[in-house]
Design goal:
With 149 residues, the protein is an all-alpha fold. The protein has one domain: NusB-like (N-utilizing Substance Protein B Homolog, Chain A, Orthogonal Bundle). Helix content is 66%, strand content 0%. Helix 1 packs parallel to helix 3 and helix 5 runs parallel beside helix 7. The chain is globular and about 40 Å long.
């Protein structure tokens, strides 16, 4: 799927994944300045990426909780050995599953798997799917609809 045919939320998730990948490799001194520079290099104006910014801030604010959840769900897997791109995808998806009840879990999982198909390996896709599927089973809400509670 070409960039111009991708839905806005998909483009926002791609931007979020890219930022989280870079953030995990080189933690910025100033998050606001780092985000400003990142969005200056994107194809659309910054306001187009409002959803991406929500996800980025959400992941960063909750990264310890999210990483603990990844460690819990990825039994027998060394956290430090998870590929940085896979970690970015997992962090974003787990943030959505744990904190964004307005997004149906199945949408989050499908989006994460699609991103892993495009940006990672087949083995990673299975790993990401396995982690997210375990988390989906622990949710107390329907997987195919949003919850506004």
């Amino acid at each position: 799927m070409s960039e111009e045919k991708k839905p806005q939320r998909r483009l926002c998730r791609i931007a979020c994944m890219q930022y989280l990948y870079a953030w995990s490799i080189n933690l910025p001194q100033d998050l606001s300045d780092s985000l400003r520079l990142f969005f200056e290099d994107q194809a659309e104006r910054r306001d187009f990426y409002a959803f991406a910014e929500e996800l980025i801030f959400g992941v960063i604010e909750n990264v310890n909780t999210i990483d603990d959840k990844i460690r819990e769900l990825a039994k027998n897997w060394d956290f430090e050995r998870i590929a940085k791109i896979d970690l970015a995808i997992l962090r974003m998806a787990l943030f959505e599953l744990l904190f964004r009840k307005d997004i149906p879990p199945i949408v989050t999982i499908n989006e994460a798997i699609d991103l892993s198909k495009e940006y990672s390996s087949q083995e990673s896709r299975r790993f990401i799917n396995g982690i997210l599927d375990k988390q989906k089973g622990d949710l107390s809400r329907p997987s195919r609809s949003a919850s506004w509670e």
